[in-house]
């Protein structure tokens, strides 16, 4: 029997101490960037504000869908070449910058989550370049990839980032921050572990599936995950009808975060084209140029906005070997 779970997202980007509820839809049993982003295997960006159920709600990105392959490829190459091509999110320190969590162990439920980005001199960084309308994107995921939150904390004057998170279940979690420190001049993704205390019942990564449903929306994915890169097209329907009026969320018609099962290597990409460019349709298809850091099983989280609610559709895909691709031709 497949159980559908809804994880609650909280977004406190707008006001200190104020959170917007975001929900994400995850099926534990089996479903199913770019400082300018493109395909981050070495740093990544996704934005959510206004999320709703996982399958929840999020708010505004753009970039893809019609035409910035050259830009995305350049970003991908830049990230892949940086730091010997190590995937993003695997390190707590990179290029002299460190993700400093106030606590790494918390109780289940609503928590005041606080952290800093420390610079090479050890002090909290307070100057960042915006990434898709935000100075920082915070992603929290369960180790088994059965829970996902994309939120935007608020930065206090001393460089401390603050947000309320609702993590109802005990378990092992990973925290990712997409930031572009102004002094560094590029985007990096830092990662750290967070444990929620209590009885922990591990679950398997959801089974591979190319379609999922979230709050009455059906979302399917076409294309393959390849280390050399390929196009992924995600199609959104509601009650069987194509959704042609997706709304921009953080300047895009979709945001895609990809996490590898096992080590949680992180990729964050934005779609081809952008809202208002005159050539990118507002659905039902959202296309991403995506390159993953290596073979494996990956969990994909697509944020899209419709009827003023941001929802998250989740899929599990395995990489397609290069040989299989070449034999097809």
Description:
This protein has 329 residues and is mainly beta. Helix content is 6%, strand content 40%. It has two helices and 23 strands. It has helices spanning 69-81, 322-327; strands spanning 5-11, 20-26, 60-61, 93-94, 97-101, 105-106, 109-118, 136-142, 148-151, 154-155, 160-167, 171-179, 188-196, 211-214, 217-222, 230-238, 241-242, 249-250, 255-260, 266-269, 285-290, 297-306, 309-318. The strands form six sheets. The chain has a five-stranded antiparallel beta sheet, with no helix packed on it. Strands 6-13-12-8-9 form a five-stranded mixed beta sheet, with no helix packed on it. A hairpin with a 5-residue loop joins β8 (136-142) and β9. It starts with a strand and ends with a helix. Residues 1-84 have low confidence and may be disordered.
Tally of DSSP helical segments: 2
| Span between termini | 40 Å
Q: Which strand order do you get reading across the main beta sheet? A: 4-5-7-11-10
**Total number of beta strands:** 23
Biggest β-sheet description: 5 strands, antiparallel
Nearest-integer average pLDDT: 79
The coarse overall form would be: globular
Q: What is the H/E order?
A: EEEHEEEEEEEEEEEEEEEEEEEEH
How much helix, percentage-wise, in residues?
A: under 10%
User: Proportion of β residues?
Assistant: 35-45%
Query: Which residue ranges are poorly predicted, with pLDDT under 50 across at least 5 consecutive positions?
Result: 1-84
Structural class: mainly beta
Radius of gyration: 18 Å
């Amino acid at each position: 029997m497949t159980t559908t779970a809804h994880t609650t997202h909280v977004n406190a980007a707008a006001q200190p101490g104020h959170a917007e509820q975001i929900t994400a839809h995850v099926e534990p049993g089996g479903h199913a960037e770019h400082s300018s982003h493109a395909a981050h295997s070495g740093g990544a960006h996704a934005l959510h504000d206004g999320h709703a159920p996982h399958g929840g709600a999020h708010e505004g990105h753009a970039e893809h869908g019609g035409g910035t392959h050259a830009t995305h490829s350049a970003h991908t190459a830049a990230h892949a070449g940086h730091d010997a091509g190590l995937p993003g999110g695997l390190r707590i320190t990179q290029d002299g910058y460190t993700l400093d969590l106030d606590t790494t162990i918390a109780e289940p439920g609503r928590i005041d989550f606080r952290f800093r980005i420390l610079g090479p001199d050890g002090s909290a960084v307070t100057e960042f370049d915006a990434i898709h309308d935000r100075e920082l994107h915070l992603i929290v995921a369960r180790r088994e990839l059965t829970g996902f939150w994309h939120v935007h904390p608020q930065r206090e004057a001393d460089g401390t980032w603050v947000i309320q998170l609702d993590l109802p279940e005990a378990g092992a979690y990973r925290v990712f921050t997409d930031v572009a420190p102004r002094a560094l001049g590029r985007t990096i993704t830092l990662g750290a572990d967070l444990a929620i205390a209590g009885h922990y019942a591990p679950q398997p990564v959801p089974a591979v599936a190319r379609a999922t449903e979230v709050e009455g929306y059906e979302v399917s994915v076409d294309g393959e995950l390849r280390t050399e890169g390929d196009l992924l097209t995600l199609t959104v329907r509601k009650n069987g009808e194509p959704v042609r009026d997706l709304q921009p969320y953080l300047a895009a018609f979709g945001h895609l975060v990809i996490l590898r099962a096992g080590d949680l290597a992180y990729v964050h990409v934005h779609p081809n084209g952008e809202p208002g460019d005159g050539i990118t349709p507002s659905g039902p298809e959202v296309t991403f140029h995506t390159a993953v850091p290596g073979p494996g099983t990956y969990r994909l989280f697509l944020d899209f906005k419709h009827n003023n609610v941001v929802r998250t559709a989740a899929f599990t895909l395995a990489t397609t070997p290069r040989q299989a691709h070449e034999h097809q031709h």
